[in-house]
Write a structure and sequence with these properties.
The chain is α+β, with helices and mostly antiparallel strands and about 260 residues long. It contains seven helices and ten strands. It is elongated, with a radius of gyration of 29 Å.
């Protein structure tokens, strides 16, 4: 009788230990994930992003299922997937410190672990290309408004190119080292890449004024208004060369890597 009682007790103990071990084996410590997630802030540096991304690839998720002591399933928890989706849209995508090909690597990774709603490649280059006017001085505000009207007209015209296989990027901000340059319009085609800068003139006090833009022998762009005979230099070759040089540097350093990343879907 004693032996039977001891055997029953032993079986109960084994069952309890087995259940406890089974629950323990299904989970890993998620504290490090939470810590890393909280540390990743808006506008994080590329180094901070790389550290977080490397951790994710080694972490593999907070859920583990074993069979006979062997891991048969290891994946991210649903709440972890939701966290990563939020990080992608709210921190990674709008981050000006990260290049497009890095953002695309992250999107493909979270898609591969089962995050939903990230199947298509977003247009990172035009994440926020809305035309705004934050000028407070009345004269500066008016000039900005005129400029925005001009850009809207050009954007509308360039839409026709997209129907013929061209890609148009408006308001792109590209990072070159520690500097960020903004381009009004970039047109990409099989014939080349075209950088277009919009200059809007001919408005005084909200009214249209006849004017013209001329280029003098020294390659200065000059605005002539009918109401004002004075010549006003509005641009020159130095500005344009700076934009072109910066874009060539960007294309050489990053476009080839972004293209390879985009084609490996």
């Amino acid at each position: 009788m004693f032996e039977i009682i001891m055997a029953v007790i032993l079986l109960i103990v084994i069952a309890i230990v087995g259940i406890t071990a089974s629950k323990k084996n299904k989970w890993v410590d998620t504290e490090e994930f939470e810590k890393r997630k909280a540390a990743l802030k808006l506008h994080c540096s590329e180094e901070e992003f790389t550290e977080f991304f490397d951790f994710l690839q080694k972490y593999e998720g907070g859920y583990i299922r074993r069979k006979n002591g062997e891991i048969v399933q290891h994946e991210y928890l649903n709440r972890e997937k939701g966290d990563l989706k939020g990080i992608f849209f709210n921190i990674i995508m709008p981050n000006p410190n990260l290049h497009s090909y890095r953002k695309e690597e992250f999107r493909k990774f979270i898609r591969s672990i089962g995050v939903t709603g990230v199947d298509a490649r977003p247009n990172y280059e035009t994440r926020d290309n809305s035309l705004r006017n934050r000028e407070t001085d009345p004269e500066s505000f008016q000039r900005k408004e005129v400029g925005n009207i001009g850009e809207k007209l050009v954007r509308k015209t360039l839409e026709e190119l997209e129907q013929n296989g061209y890609s148009v990027i408006n308001g792109a901000k590209l990072r070159f080292g520690d500097k960020v340059k903004e381009y009004d319009h970039i047109v990409v085609s099989l014939h080349g890449v075209f950088i277009i800068e919009t200059k809007a003139f001919g408005m005084t006090d909200g009214k249209a004024v006849k004017c013209g833009v001329f280029i003098d022998p020294d390659d200065h762009w000059i605005l002539r208004k009918k109401t004002n005979k004075q010549r006003i230099a509005v641009s020159d070759r130095t500005d344009h060369n700076s934009c072109i040089t910066s874009f060539r540097y960007f294309a050489k350093q990053y476009v080839s890597r972004s293209w390879n990343c985009c084609t490996q879907q």
